[in-house]
Amino acid sequence: MDSVQEQPNVKSQETASNVHDKPKSYIKERVISSVVLMLFTCANNSSVPLFTQYIHSRYEDVYSNGTHSSSISTNKQSSCLANASEEAVEVEVRVQQSTSFEILKLCLCFQIPPVIVNMVVGSYSDHIGRKLLFVLPMLGCTCKYVGFILVIKYHLNLNFLLIGTLLEGFSGSTSTFLLANMAYAADVTKTHATRTFAIVMTDSSVSIAIALGQVMTGFLIEKLGYFYPSVINTALILLATAIVIFGLTETVKKTEVKELSPVVHLKKVFGFYVNKSGDNKRSIFIASVIVFALLSIGLNGKGAIEILYQLGRPFCWDPVKIGYYGAYSTVFMTISGLVAIKLGSACVRVEILSVTGMFLLMGSLILQGLASTDAMLYSVPFVASISSVSIPVTRSVLSSMVEAHEQGAIFSSMATVETLCGAIGSTAFVSLYRATVGTMRGMTFLVIAAVVFMAAIMKIVVIVKSPRQPSYDIFQSPPEDQKAQTPDHNQYGTIPKGENNTPC
Predict the structure, then answer these.
(1) Contact, 294 vs 354, CB < 8 A?
(2) How many Cβ atoms sit within 10 Å of the Cβ of residue 284?
């Protein structure tokens, strides 16, 4: 491992030479990359309500002997409100089970391929250029929407959705797109600044885009059905792609990749967790990545079933209600997280805020699992409040513990863990929901709360262990920030985080 650890120093010098001489102003690059991020996030995350509600509507038609109206419009009232008989309840349970099975298949197609891609893509990104990492996921997302549009237009078998989703998965999907944003942010950022607040601020812009997409999608589904929202989202993705190709400045000169063996790149990505040292730094790394993994499992599981849960009894929400709730939940929790980080960090360590957020998230999941009225469900984001800081703080912990030349490797590591755990969480909790929807459909949220509780306990271990090594103060400014950075420093300043809002 020692030989592997020496290589980043050489690569750091190569990377510095690969990056163009930075201009005096980075406003143009930052604005364009932010616009691209907002467009992609808004369009891509809108596929969650679109796919879930369309599939649910298709199965309502099947089990209710209905027409193909689901492919055109959703003006009809949900069947779960129209009839409360025992037969109607049984039909609604079968609809939920069939829909959850289709979502499970989409999850596997969407989340398994990026695990392979993300293992090495971060380490290669300094040679192949940033634009390619932006464009590939957007083309994959376009394929997903084209497949969806064809299924709606011609009322094809739902299995055709798997083709476009699988193509998106092999493009690297959301995780690769976010990794491209991390690398590009590093190229156009001079200093580290306040890492945690920068991460949360970037998360906030992503959250706003998600909220806008959810509200827009809810209204469009209600008024126009599923076809036209899909066309609009495809247009947004193509617009973002054109902006990247013609408007985004390439910050890296393409060079030959000297080491093609993926083994070397895998060692760089995962060497943090196996490198032997005489202190507890490795144990903090491992504990932190376990926290990150558990949160990813829980949040992906929650995202996979939340809309399906709202469509079923006793809520029977329509697309507009689902859109409103998604926007309200996202915006409220984002604002709460920003306020907590900005004001609370002056009084307590941000790690304490992170643990508090996890316990609040656990409470909100219990409430969500036991909810029986709309009012109880609307109070879930209020209880969760500052839980949105938990993952950004964990990212910041891992990022702050490594040197500047190791940032690409640590981000690839997190992307791989997040994608793999997303697949595990989606598969496990969608399967659990499918098995318990006829008995206690809220059981899945209670189990997710137990996973979050384990993450909180592990986080407490990190807090207790980290102060014992002052040199590894997890929020100490890295060396490159203690001196005014020159254009030769390649620092990953702002880190956009995926909300794990995928078709899963």
Answers:
(1) no
(2) 22
pLDDT above 50 for 481: no
Alpha-carbon span 45 to 233, nearest angstrom: 10
Per the domain annotation, does 494 fall within a domain? no
Q: Which CATH number do you get for residue 286?
A: 1.20.1250.20
Burial class of residue 373 (count of CB atoms within 10 Å of its CB; 0-12, 13-18, 19+): exposed
Total number of domains in the chain: 1
Residue 235 has pLDDT above 90, yes or no: yes
| Cβ 77 vs Cβ 29: under 8 Å | no
- Cα–Cα distance list, 257 to 101, 127, 134 (Å): 42, 6, 19
Print the domain residue range for 394.
24-250+270-475
Distance, in Å, from the CA atom of 302 to the CA atom of 444, rounded to the nearest integer, reads 8
Task: Return the exposure string of 115-136: e unless at least 16 CB atoms fall within 10 Å of the residue's CB, then b.
Answer: bbbbbbbbbbbbbebbbbbbbb
Q: Cis peptide before 314, with omega less than 30 degrees from 0?
A: yes
Q: What confidence score (pLDDT) does residue 73 get?
A: 46
Cα–Cα nearest to 289, from 272, 268, 266: 272
Please report whether residue 286 resides in a domain.
yes
- State how far the Cα of 197 lies from the Cα of 193, in Å rounded to an integer: 9
Is 491 inside any structural domain? Answer: no
476: left (phi over 0), alpha (psi -120 to 50) or beta: beta
The answer to whether the pTM exceeds 0.70 is yes
- What is the per-residue pLDDT across 90-143, written as a single tens digit (0 to 9) for each? 888 999 999 999 999 999 998 888 887 777 666 566 566 778 889 989 999 999
- The answer to whether residue 70 sits within a structural domain is yes
Looking at residue 202, its pLDDT comes to 61
Q: Please tell me what DSSP assigns to residue 46.
A: T
Give the whole-angstrom CA distance, residue 299 versus residue 371: 18
Cβ–Cβ < 8 Å for 257, 124: yes
Q: Yes or no: say if 179 and 414 are a contact pair by the CB < 8 Å rule.
A: no
